[in-house]
Please model this.
Amino acid sequence: MSLQLFKIETVEVASPVSSITFSSIPQGYTDLKLVLSSRSTYGNNFGNPRITINGSTSTFSRRSIYAENGAAGSEVGSDTRIIGVIPDNATANTFGSLELYMPNYASSTYKSYNVDSTTENNSSTQGVWLLAGLWSTTSAVTSITVGPIDGNFATNTTATLYGVL
Amino acid sequence: MAIRSLKSGTFSRSGMVGNPVIMPGSYESIATVTVSSATSSITFSSIPSTYTHLQIRGITRSSSANNYDNIWMRFNSDTNSNYASHYLAGNGATADAYAWSSETQIRSFYTAGGTASSNVFSVSVIDILDYANTSKYKTTRHLNGFDNNATGTGDYAKGTLVLSSGLWRSTSAVSAIEFTINGGVNFTQYSSFALYGVN
Model:
């Protein structure tokens, strides 16, 4: 059977907001896929979006490999970062590109997810990341919130949540 | 016959007994190009602006005298220096980072080259979010790799895995995408790109 993708909801930011929430997520799909084209109002070199699941910011952990400022590296963390939002001091009109994939989001096991993202702009202060994350909770995922750790999502940021069968 | 509610995800019985289940998905094929004889470029043109995002899936191999080559990607025939690219590349031993800016094309990914082991092709998935949004420059995200079965010496000759990104500094909607190979060499037979629209 082929993979099938169904849009659950798209949000486009008309004026800066601190976060975007997808709530009442239907439980009938197999996996979830979130794509985010984002820019923040915060003027640091790298912006970090974070994820909140079912209102929780605890029991998260992650590992990532990355290329930042022309150097490759790897890191671990016990936080909600999913990495990859363009900051306000980047090339004008550029937006980060991020995809988060979470299999078995309605299961009674811990929730693993992977993220690939970029803050591509026409300068050396740029990064690409691959991240594996874990939310060590057995609850089904019913809501997901994403938002920049610093500042707000800028106008024209878009986020779409898909269900996958 | 069961149908699934897209809102609740629950199954129920279709009132159209005997009819096939119709589930309108968000992922649609726009076009597929498969190389039947060696060619120097693969182009998708007249791309409709009606989708939200684009995704391209490809398998490629070049005809060069190298084990691997760079695939270039250009939008709307824009030959100006409006492109930037960044790579995170691993070969099983090291991870490397590369950056290019103000170039005339995006460096999309590494393809298996003409001296790679026979029948080896690279695989790639490229996402272009909000490709028709005229308030944004266009950012691309690529995941690509190939394995050359432990053959070859140096750099990525034995194979590589690349996460890369590209930028086209234009607010125009993407209406055409052209792929070429570094040095103007050809895509070999059976190379293929499939373009999908995502709603």
In short: Chain B touches chain A through 46 residues (CB under 8 Å). The CA atoms of residues 152 and 197 of chain B lie 37 Å apart. The two ends of chain B are 27 Å apart (CA to CA).
